[in-house]
């Protein structure tokens, strides 16, 4: 591809992107293809000869697009969002054109220096104290892994990396059952063992770890010869938005000298609105906090911010300085790859910078407040229907519910089967997209609003789709 062709196809791609986003409401949200259907359309072996771009582009539209689930669809109400404001997509075009690998300060000083600035903007926007330093990670999963490796090394007197875990005391980490599975995997990958991730019972509508039970588990573990190492708290658990009492947990962490990592991957973006900050009251007591602007702030995937009270601990756990990565004469600069599990780094700061400048905090707050208000309105409307139950009340823009008509009353298996069938009918219908979870063993449907272009009408259409399809099935 020569320069002129590159210009032509870049423009085609940009035009395509704008048309795609404008036409999303006319597409089914979830891909409607059967397993293997897309693979069957793709040649089984690679082409020996070059193909024309026109043909490649056409097969993208004909063969690939039908198998896409449209995450930017305004009626994507499944999982958590991965909302990408158009302006962050524009920034990504630029990042993609430069294609820089920003692992060290000197491999692109602007990427490092903008990362420092823009994470500090975000820190101010969510009201965290100035003692926190931010860095951009690819995902919350790898930020959490970095935190767990740090808490492991800290507890082992920084000997785990050199000596290995055999012969070391058995470390313990504490969390509730509401945390995302990235916590389990971080504990596995850090070599601590799933059996040493201690689940603390939950209480109250927030489904928070019971602080007395947490304290009792730590005390009992010390008496039994284990070495408590850290606590992982959540604000906005994935299933139904569980949130720990961060102040109470932080007090225990401080008293017991344990590392505290807070997973606010989804809910953290809402902290740009001061009125929601009570949900993570006490967060300044954390050592590490993870938030995904790629979930709800509008930063195109991927873009995770990790805030650290003392980054030198994470650097001590993760940094390695072979000769080929040294930056001669520049000892005082920051190399953010030393803050992460992976070495290579995309230039993620640019899209956060574009996003925050183009929308301002005012625009971003309005988006989040609208999502919360519309979800609350939908939950109230659905909860007012005689054949629907709200199972967990809205936590920000997430709530869970189920269909439970009078004729199925008391028959839990039949209610679960009806809700499984309803979910499938909703997603096959295509106007909206929902997913499910279990709440205290009950199969329930989740609703969250978080797409950048979602309107109140989109949310209200969900009411018609859900109730209409439920009653049609009976
Ligand atoms: C609460 C929570 N934490 C962590 C994650 C993992 O996020 P990521 O995909 O960025 O690793 C998720 C994903 O949905 C989540 O909901």
TrEMBL record:
Naming one, the record's GO cellular component terms include: cytoplasm
> What keywords are annotated for this sequence in UniProt?
Decarboxylase, Lyase, Pyridoxal phosphate
- Cofactors: pyridoxal 5'-phosphate
What PROSITE patterns does the entry give? Answer: DDC_GAD_HDC_YDC (PS00392)
Q: Which GO terms describe its biological process?
A: amino acid metabolic process; carboxylic acid metabolic process
Molecular function (Gene Ontology), one example: carboxy-lyase activity
Superkingdom of this protein's organism: Bacteria
Post-translational modification N6-(pyridoxal phosphate)lysine, affected residues: 295
Give a single Pfam family match.
Pyridoxal_deC
Q: Which PANTHER family match?
A: GROUP II PYRIDOXAL-5-PHOSPHATE DECARBOXYLASE (PTHR11999), MIP05841P (PTHR11999:SF70)
The family assignment reads: Belongs to the group II decarboxylase family.
Q: What is this protein called?
A: Amino acid decarboxylase
Q: What is the lineage of its organism?
A: Bacteria, Pseudomonadati, Pseudomonadota, Alphaproteobacteria, Hyphomicrobiales
């Amino acid at each position: 591809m020569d320069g002129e062709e590159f210009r032509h196809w870049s423009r085609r791609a940009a035009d395509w992107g704008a048309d795609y986003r404008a036409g999303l409401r006319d597409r089914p949200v979830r891909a409607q293809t059967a397993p293997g259907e897309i693979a069957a359309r793709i040649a089984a072996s690679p082409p020996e000869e070059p193909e024309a771009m026109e043909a490649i582009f056409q097969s993208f539209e004909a063969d690939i697009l039908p198998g896409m689930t449209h995450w930017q669809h305004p009626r994507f109400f499944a999982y958590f969002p991965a909302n990408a404001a158009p302006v962050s997509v524009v920034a990504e075009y630029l990042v993609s054109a430069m294609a820089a690998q920003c692992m060290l300060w000197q491999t692109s000083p602007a990427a490092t220096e903008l990362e420092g600035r823009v994470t500090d903007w975000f820190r101010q926007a969510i009201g965290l104290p100035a003692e926190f330093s931010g860095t951009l990670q690819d995902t919350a999963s790898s930020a959490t892994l970095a935190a767990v490796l740090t808490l492991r090394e800290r507890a082992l007197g920084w000997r785990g990396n050199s000596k290995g875990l055999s012969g070391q005391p058995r470390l313990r980490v504490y969390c509730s059952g509401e945390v995302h599975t990235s916590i389990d995997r971080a504990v596995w990958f850090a070599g601590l063992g799933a059996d040493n991730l201690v689940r603390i019972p939950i209480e109250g509508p927030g489904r928070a770890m019971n602080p007395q039970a947490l304290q009792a588990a730590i005390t009992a573990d010390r008496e039994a010869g284990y070495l408590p190492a850290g606590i992982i708290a959540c604000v906005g658990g994935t299933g139904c938005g569980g949130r720990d009492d961060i102040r109470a947990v932080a007090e225990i962490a401080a008293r017991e000298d344990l590392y505290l990592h807070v997973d606010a991957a989804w809910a953290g973006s809402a902290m740009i609105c001061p009125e929601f900050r009570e949900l993570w009251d006490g967060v300044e007591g954390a050592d590490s906090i993870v938030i995904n602007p790629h979930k709800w702030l509008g930063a195109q995937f991927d873009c995770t911010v990790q805030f650290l009270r003392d980054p030198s601990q994470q650097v001590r756990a993760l940094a390695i300085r072979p000769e080929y990565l040294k930056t001669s004469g520049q000892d005082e600069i920051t190399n953010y790859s030393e803050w992460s599990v992976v070495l290579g780094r995309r230039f993620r700061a640019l899209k956060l910078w574009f996003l925050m400048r183009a929308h301002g905090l005012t625009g971003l707050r309005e988006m989040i407040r609208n999502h919360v208000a519309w979800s609350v309105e939908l939950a109230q409307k659905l909860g007012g229907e005689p054949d629907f139950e709200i199972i967990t009340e809205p936590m920000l823009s997430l709530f869970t519910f189920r269909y439970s008509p009078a004729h199925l009353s008391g028959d839990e298996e039949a209610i679960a089967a009806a809700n499984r069938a309803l979910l499938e009918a909703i997603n096959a219908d295509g106007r909206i997209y929902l997913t499910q979870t279990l709440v205290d063993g009950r199969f329930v449907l989740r609703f969250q609003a978080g797409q950048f272009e979602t309107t109140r009408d989109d949310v209200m259409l969900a009411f018609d789709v859900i109730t209409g399809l439920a009653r049609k099935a009976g």
